[in-house]
Amino acid sequence: VIEDLTGLHETAEFPVGVAIDARETVGGPSTLLTRHFNQVTHENHMKPEAWYDDEGNFRPHEQALTVLDFARDNDLRVYGHVLVWHSQTPAWFFQDAEGQPLTTSAAHQQVLRDRLRTHIFNVAESLSDRYGPFGSPTNPLYAWDVVNEVVSDSGEHADGLRRSEWYRILGESFIDLSFEYAHEAFNDVHAVSGSDPVTLFINDYNTEQSGKQTRYRALVQRLLDRDVPIDGVGHQFHVSLATPVSSLQSTLESFAELPLTQAVTELDVTTGTPVTQARLIEQGYFYRDAFRIFREHTDDLFAVTVWGLTDGRSWRSANAPLLFDDNLRAKPAYHGAVDGELPA
Ligand code: G3I
């Protein structure tokens, strides 16, 4: 039974998205989804490793296409996640033909640049073959997290970047190249001509925390200084009731002066355990205040995505971090997000 409630997306001027897999495209979950959200993100099935079979052959994952078809058929936008990441990427990306780690020799750097470019172009080509060029009405994909989690969690390195395999072999240049290849593939070669239909984001977590935020902002500024074709800054906002909600506001403000759009890409709010009624109500107030902040930033917010539809499907399910419970019932978190009535 889906309750007759105001659609969350009707309460905001920016698209409101949700992370899903094929399970949310059928039955009750799909009804709940289309009532409250007008955008979707693949929680796992467009990550780098999802595009390859066990032999390393490129092919779209069946669940990626199920979600894209569902989006196309229901007028939902797709915010893509993720082209380049240090995690959930096949190990062979960073190995030579003998299975040894690539070195930083010029030849090995070229091998990795070619793999990066080929991956991004294969994704663009396979999707445009099926859905038409980007920017055409049958193609629902309109944004990508181009690079994910490239900023270091510590301040020990002057450039503030994560020491990943991408970084070890190519240095900071892998970030520039990722955006350049993505721009060429999604906004030129496979796009409706004369448009830039796909908005290209950098994405990271803990950007509401001061150290990470400073390193993130410095990197984004360097990309802008180098004329890298980046369009937006993503904030995952995997937060908890201990997070000052005002930090979400100050984060959006600190990036607002840049000539870029911003997105909240993976919102969820853990309650702490045990999950009590009092904590669920407190969570309702947190979501209320967070969405109030987002609505105030309508001018520079591209979209807000909640990282899952129902609590049991969350990567942090023990902490009931989402808007709906496993019976598809709205929690206080939903009522807060739509700025409705909350118990005292
Ligand atoms: O599909 C296999 C299944 O066949 C197997 O039986 C099962 C056993 O563990 O694993 C399944 O894969 C899991 C996959 O989710 C699909 O459920 C992986 O183990 C598990 O690691 C994976 O977790 C995902 C995680 O990213 C991986 O890093 C979460 O669902 C997903 O919510 C999470 O999302 C990330 C974002 O991509 C980036 N930002 C942080 C965010 C939360 O960690």
Automatic annotation (TrEMBL):
User: What sections of the protein cross the membrane?
Assistant: none
Boundaries of every GH10 domain copy: 2-340
Q: Which domain of life is it from?
A: Bacteria
In the record, the note on similarity to other proteins reads: Belongs to the glycosyl hydrolase 10 (cellulase F) family.
Protein name, UniProt field: Beta-xylanase
Q: What is the lineage of its organism?
A: Bacteria, Bacillati, Actinomycetota, Actinomycetes, Micromonosporales
